[in-house]
Automatic annotation (TrEMBL):
<dbReference type="GO" id="GO:0009089">
    <property type="term" value="P:lysine biosynthetic process via diaminopimelate"/>
</dbReference>
<feature type="active site" description="Proton donor/acceptor">
    <location>
        <position position="151"/>
    </location>
</feature>
<dbReference type="GO" id="GO:0008839">
    <property type="term" value="F:4-hydroxy-tetrahydrodipicolinate reductase"/>
</dbReference>
<comment type="function">
    <text>Catalyzes the conversion of 4-hydroxy-tetrahydrodipicolinate (HTPA) to tetrahydrodipicolinate.</text>
</comment>
<dbReference type="InterPro" id="IPR036291">
    <property type="entry name" value="NAD(P)-bd_dom_sf"/>
</dbReference>
<keyword id="KW-0963">Cytoplasm</keyword>
<keyword id="KW-0028">Amino-acid biosynthesis</keyword>
<comment type="pathway">
    <text>Amino-acid biosynthesis; L-lysine biosynthesis via DAP pathway; (S)-tetrahydrodipicolinate from L-aspartate: step 4/4.</text>
</comment>
<protein>
    <recommendedName>
        <fullName>4-hydroxy-tetrahydrodipicolinate reductase</fullName>
        <ecNumber>1.17.1.8</ecNumber>
    </recommendedName>
</protein>
<dbReference type="GO" id="GO:0016726">
    <property type="term" value="F:oxidoreductase activity, acting on CH or CH2 groups, NAD or NADP as acceptor"/>
</dbReference>
<comment type="subunit">
    <text>Homotetramer.</text>
</comment>
<dbReference type="InterPro" id="IPR022663">
    <property type="entry name" value="DapB_C"/>
</dbReference>
<feature type="binding site">
    <location>
        <begin position="14"/>
        <end position="19"/>
    </location>
    <ligand>
        <name>NAD(+)</name>
    </ligand>
</feature>
<dbReference type="Pfam" id="PF05173">
    <property type="entry name" value="DapB_C"/>
</dbReference>
<feature type="binding site">
    <location>
        <position position="43"/>
    </location>
    <ligand>
        <name>NADP(+)</name>
    </ligand>
</feature>
<dbReference type="GO" id="GO:0019877">
    <property type="term" value="P:diaminopimelate biosynthetic process"/>
</dbReference>
<keyword id="KW-0457">Lysine biosynthesis</keyword>
Amino acid sequence: MKQSSDVTRVLIHGASGRMGQALLRLLATREDLRAVAAVSRSKPAQRVVDGLPYFAVTELHGVPAFDVAIDFSLPDGLEAILGLCVERGVPLVSGTTGLSASGERALDAAATTVPVLLAANFSLGVTVLGDLVERAARLLQTWDCDIVESHHKHKLDAPSGTALALGARAEQGGAQPSYASLRAGDIVGEHTVQFAGPGERIELVHRATSRDVFARGALHAAAWLAGQAPGRYQLRDMLR
Ligand SMILES: NC(=O)C1=CN([C@@H]2O[C@H](COP(=O)(O)OP(=O)(O)OC[C@H]3O[C@@H](n4cnc5c(N)ncnc54)[C@H](OP(=O)(O)O)[C@@H]3O)[C@@H](O)[C@H]2O)C=CC1
Ligand SMILES: O=C(O)C1=N[C@H](C(=O)O)C[C@H](O)C1
């Protein structure tokens, strides 16, 4: 386990993406974290950018030593970075959504040897929204529950990971949610959980207007996870 006084060396997986770029920009403002490697699927156009070495996923074995990996890629990218983290005994924070059941099982298996934290949404607002949704579902057992999510038109998975996670909280409260997805323009991420009863309805809405909220949450999680024992963690574990 990493010593708390050290600067935590971070590998960013999915570095060329929308989230990867936000993470690298915000990482540069943190004194306790330092980016030491950036990995993407394709060969990097430049080997080194602002002193940071870039690698293609096929070159993963050559990355320098790191204390925690942060992955915002696609489901088919998970296996390689998870394998490297297990090989090197290093924690993994992942925000990648749309994982298959086998991807989830791979995370569980890795968590027997390294700390692993996966969250479909790293914003504080959505973390709180989950609690509100479960409570509303518990109180409104006979009402219909529907989840509508809107994202930018490049997003590949639907329903979003956040919608499914909110739906799981609604189910814990006794609801049976249905889902609807919109893909349009450059919407960062919007989720509405609607409870509809006879003559009235409640809408619980979260709107993200900047990817920085997700990136900040993931960096916070990485700094925390670097000091944890092996196991599978959720964002809620950080608040205890
Ligand atoms: N949990 C959360 O809070 C949030 C989660 N997300 C999720 O994060 C993920 C990334 O989103 P976003 O940044 O918008 O996506 P982008 O498409 O912008 O970026 C994807 C990144 O992953 C890389 N990549 C893709 N496939 C692989 C692979 N097989 N192996 C290694 N690297 C790969 C891409 O490399 P290349 O450019 O070379 O193709 C790119 O760097 C999505 O699953 C999204 O749903 C997004 C926002 C918030
Ligand atoms: O792909 C995105 O952009 C986002 N994905 C996450 C999800 O699937 O819920 C989180 C956020 O809504 C943005």
